[in-house]
Sulfite reductase (Pseudodonghicola xiamenensis), 99 residues
Amino acid sequence: MPRPYTPKVVTASDLLEGDVIYLTATDNWTRHLAEAELIEDEAHAQLRLLLAESQPNRVVGAYLAEVKPGPHGPEPTHFREAFRATGPSNYAHGKQTGL
């Protein structure tokens, strides 16, 4: 029996800066997971991933990351995505300044 589909977001790395970025519902990229498009349909998720992969001059390593709906937008369900959302751990600036 196949697993039921779980919500996803499209994520990648910014080609020039290396930051983790997320695709929004308006086809823009954001560095904030809470602003990412929450995709609850598997076919739509595949189309959104194709859109991301068609932008090699902007992003690298695009994939679908599992998330859950939260009060302020998508929230990670896996440690890896929680870690990626906060940015590199080897410095205390950038995304981590507010933590």
In short: The chain has two helices and five strands. The mean pLDDT is 89. The chain has one domain: 8-87. The first helix runs from residue 42 to 53.
